[in-house]
Design brief:
By secondary structure, the chain is mostly beta strands. The chain has no helices and 13 strands. The strands form 4 sheets. It has a 4-stranded parallel sheet with strand order 1-5-9-13, with no helix packed on it. The chain is rod-shaped and about 95 Å long.
Length: about 200
């Protein structure tokens, strides 16, 4: 008797956001504050489980199993806060950006990936002259490639009663768990068993 079993789980998740806050060729005069803010939040939670079980019995019984849990997660956010071409003589009205309070140009991104990857393979053969082979693989790839930018170019920012602040912040976190297990059992005379498992996580 021959028993063959294969199981595979695939998880492919992608986030590709563009967040833009921009003042271009403009003038503002505020008694209070002026804020140019771009904020992005991205999160992926993924779970991939691949499992296979094969049981055979009788003389010359053969059991073969293969299991895989494959995960590919990627985040590529583009977050920008920009003040462009807003200066005296360039913008209309000509004063650029003027405020009685604070002027703030800020870009921020918070990205998280939590990935769990599991593969389990079990092969059992019972009887003489039998063989069992079990293979399990659990590869995981998690990528964060974000751009966070706060920029002032060819512009005038004047605060008469506060401060002018420019900031860009990025907070990226990856939690990855990759597990592979393989078990091969052969019972009886002149039997053989082989098992192999591999788990990788690339972040």
């Amino acid at each position: 008797a021959v028993a063959v079993s294969f199981g595979i789980a695939l998880a492919d998740n992608q986030i590709d956001n563009v967040t833009l806050a921009q003042i271009d060729d403009s003038g503002f005069d505020s008694e209070g504050t002026i804020t140019v803010e771009a904020a992005s939040i991205g999160r992926i939670d993924s779970l991939a489980i691949g499992a296979a079980l094969a049981i055979s019995g009788g003389i010359g019984a053969v059991s073969v199993t293969g299991a895989a849990g494959v995960t590919n997660n990627s985040v590529t956010n583009d977050t920008q806060a920009l003040v462009l071409s807003s200066a005296p003589g360039v913008a209309s009205p000509a004063e650029g950006l003027r405020a009685g309070g604070d002027i703030t140009v800020t870009a921020s991104d918070v990205t998280g990936i939590k990935a769990e990857n599991v593969a389990a393979s079990v092969a059992i053969s019972i009887a003489g002259g039998g063989a069992s082979v079990a293979i399990a693989a659990s590869p995981a790839t998690n990528t964060i490639d974000n751009r966070v930018r706060a920029n002032v170019d060819a512009s005038s920012l004047t605060s008469t009663g506060g401060s002018v602040d420019l900031s860009a912040t990025s907070d990226n976190r990856v939690e990855a768990l990759s597990v592979a297990a393989a078990l091969a059992i052969s019972a009886g005379l002149y039997t053989g068993a082989a098992a192999g498992a591999g788990a990788t996580a690339t972040n």
